[in-house]
């Protein structure tokens, strides 16, 4: 410590030039890596799949099929928005499918009780918000692992849905709402329900990728303690994320009931696994701190399109399950193996120059 | 610095002995608490409905629990190492079908059970290799293998199913009969339970699983062959899921492509209710077995006291939440007590 003040005058001028020359090189490197990033790769894969299906698979390109594809994928795409943020911040919510089912069940029960649908839907979303808050409070206040908590609430919310609606199914919702759930915009292939999804997508992208809040999510996911010391209000952010996830899940449950014109307690069973599979396939790191919404959406629509194409070419539902699982395993295994190969190569490269020099001198 | 650190180990030792005792006591109390809840529940039900604890009633309770206990024992080995295996439901389904197919072809029942166990262990090797060698998060990988194995199972089964008529009488009898009120399946399960518990308690490699779970980094630095141990845990978990599959076949005699779907969540609930922490390194298989017994008993108790079965799932979920919340609060309390005690001994030594 005592020696450093004596040095400064000379060094600053000399180390500065190399540093400036190094910087652009690393940024080029980063850009090169950007091109090969996992989410870009998934996006490219989705594009290839779409192009191939349009040209090779009969009936894929017609408006009806495309609207089916998007309509069936929308529930996953909706929940994937907040789920991406949760996973980026290092948490997970397995209760989304049950929250959606509960919202649908409550919607059916209240509709049977004669309430107006205009008041039912906001109530359902509020209920979802409350479900999310319960998850969030258990995780942030008690410090419980979100995996354990949300496995518990997965069973609990589904159980409550079963108590609320029993074995009934409610189908007689007002026609204009059912039309919204399954209708298309004009003569295009875009479902009407894609509009609220697109609005939520824009909000989510802005929040995650263009605000300090979004940056702090990555910070929390990368190292929670460091983020806390840096002044990020970790608990409050996580609580808000869980609440948002609950609200969006409930909204999805409402959409589900309208889209399939049936509110049952077992609606959206297993949806949580599809959402998580899609999000992870899109390159969101399960350990937190990494990922983009673009990747998540690419993952969602890749799985959705793949399933649609496989049904069109008569691949059985069982094989689809198998392929989903394989994709999921590959999507987590590949980046890690790739990273390790890259690390081994750079280590070899670091070891190489002296060897090359030695060869040259010989 | 050296002067101040020297007394610390000496001070820590007398402090550590009672604190270890306290921790032990708390952990034992944890299992005792489940036992008390279980007994209270059964006694209350018996008072309400005197036919509940008849010989057949006890037999049914034990039979219902055996399969879940077996899978929960395997699962707790994996959870103790701070991992999880979500594919157990799929493994149970496919091994049950495999054993059934073998028996339908006129195979030997014992060999069928061995085939199921071996197939389960094979899937365990795949899971364990992916987790320990690929170093990918266990939850994600086993979620993937859950799908893959279920897919394989469904392709293989198609719309076929195994019914009790396909099975040899001896095998189905093994699934129902027993010594008095105690079914053979329960005896087999108890043997497995005791074996795994003593392995985890008394063997070096068993203790390594706890070490790995409480701090993977420290375990690695201490020379624990981490990958091998994790692989072992997964293989045992898979093998027990396979055994459970064979027993499922013996008990219910009816297997199709959907057998065991969603079972993983029940198993994880049982393990966590039984006090095996998700964060690894704590809990015992006895606790997990009690948790499984509690969950399956609730399923029998509710109908017999006239509560509709629609409540079962909600109660299961709330019980799981309660269990982990209480665990956490108790752990915080214990940590506070230990800290206070450590501070007192330290100040006593300084004084």
From TrEMBL, chain A:
This is Autoinducer 2 import system permease protein LsrD. The keyword Cell inner membrane applies. It comes from Actinacidiphila polyblastidii. It is a multi-pass membrane protein. Keywords: Cell inner membrane, Cell membrane, Membrane, Transmembrane, Transmembrane helix, Transport. It comes from the Bacteria. Pfam families: BPD_transp_2. The chain crosses the membrane at residues 35-57, 63-87, 120-140, 147-165, 185-208, 239-262, 293-313. Residues 1-21 are annotated as: Disordered. It is found in: Cell membrane. Residues 1-18 have a biased composition (Pro residues). InterPro entries: ABC_transp_permease. The keyword Cell membrane applies. Signal peptide: none annotated.
Automatic annotation (TrEMBL), chain B:
Coiled coil: none annotated. The chain crosses the membrane at residues 32-49, 61-80, 110-133, 181-200, 230-250, 262-281, 288-312, 318-338. CDD domains: TM_PBP1_transp_AraH_like (cd06579). Pfam families: BPD_transp_2 (PF02653). Keywords: Cell inner membrane, Cell membrane, Membrane, Transmembrane, Transmembrane helix, Transport. It comes from the Bacteria. It is a multi-pass membrane protein. The keyword Transport applies. Part of the ABC transporter complex LsrABCD involved in autoinducer 2 (AI-2) import. Probably responsible for the translocation of the substrate across the membrane. PANTHER family: ABC TRANSPORTER PERMEASE PROTEIN YPHD-RELATED-RELATED, AUTOINDUCER 2 IMPORT SYSTEM PERMEASE PROTEIN LSRC. The complex is composed of two ATP-binding proteins (LsrA), two transmembrane proteins (LsrC and LsrD) and a solute-binding protein (LsrB). This is Autoinducer 2 import system permease protein LsrC. It comes from Actinacidiphila polyblastidii. The lineage of its organism: Bacteria, Bacillati, Actinomycetota, Actinomycetes, Kitasatosporales.
